[in-house]
Amino acid sequence: MTSFEEAETEETVTCLHMTFYHPCQEEKMMFRCLNFCKREQVRADDVAKFGRDSSVCHYNLMDTRVSRIQFALQFYRKLHSSEYCFEIKNLSKRTKLTVNQTELGYLNKIDLPWRCIICFGDYQILAEVQEGESVDYFETYLHLAEAPILQERSLPSLQPIPESGISSSIFLCQDKSPTEMDENEP
Which residues form the FHA domain (predicted)? Predict the structure, then answer.
């Protein structure tokens, strides 16, 4: 047997990609303590905590509006399954945490979807799970977003669009102020 044949089978590692955004990042630098664009290993039995208390949290957010411990992520394996997942728990008594429209109060927890947006205050975090097989540890890979992850969605126009395909709302935008019209005028 060659050394190649005797080598241990290489395991793939579950990696949690997290992209962070806050509108005041450039001026307040609240993410300055996070290691961006560098994979970090976390033991499978450790809880990944996010917050402003550096003595408790590995992932520090430098903002007085963030709780000492804002939220935690726990890596686990589903019962009777080989599937690995993350569970997210809100540890803030002051701030609700939203995961894809699901609001979590203090100590509420849910399974983290494989792709989701986590929000609290003005913070937006896109979390994406890259599946792996390792049982000893997982990795985190943090990114910084320059633009909001959640874009403001404008409501669709309530005006009907004529068959010509040109909406009259296009022409309304040219005037700065709305004008009243009598509905009986031609």
Answer: 49-121
